[in-house]
Amino acid sequence: MKKIKPFEQIASKFQISAESAKYFLGRVQKSFKTEKPPHQLIVDSMDERGFETLPKPYHVAEMMYESGVWACPMNAEPPDPADEEDAF
């Protein structure tokens, strides 16, 4: 039996491409400074919360940190692209 990869679970559940799901999982990992959580742990944590829509990667990491699932130091939240002024 073929094992479903974590990015495939995200892609299927939230109806996004496999590339977008891989990028999302990578962004969750990059929210942490030192040790990065495994993709399957991220997916399992999201399943426990029962997200209806795809949350921001930093919010998933923050939820994992606050609940004690992954207690490594976090980076600062990246700015929201809508909050940035036009550079032109």
Any idea what the radius of gyration is? 14 Å
- The residue-averaged pLDDT reads 91
Mind describing the biggest β-sheet?
none
Order of helices and strands: HHHH
End-to-end Cα distance, whole Å, is 53 Å
Please give the share of residues in helix: 40-55%
- What's the shape? globular
Give the SSE layout.
Elements: H1 6-14, H2 18-30, H3 39-49, H4 57-66
Name a few traits of the molecule:
about 90 residues, mainly alpha, about 50% helix
Explain the overall architecture.
The protein has 88 residues and is mainly α. It is 49% helix and 0% strand. The longest helix has 13 residues, at 18-30. Helix 2 crosses helix 4 (57-66). The model has no long low-confidence stretch (mean pLDDT 91). The protein has four helices and no strands.
Q: What's a concise summary of this model?
A:
The protein is an all-alpha fold and 88 residues long. It has helices at 6-14, 18-30, 39-49, 57-66. Helix content is 49%, strand content 0%.
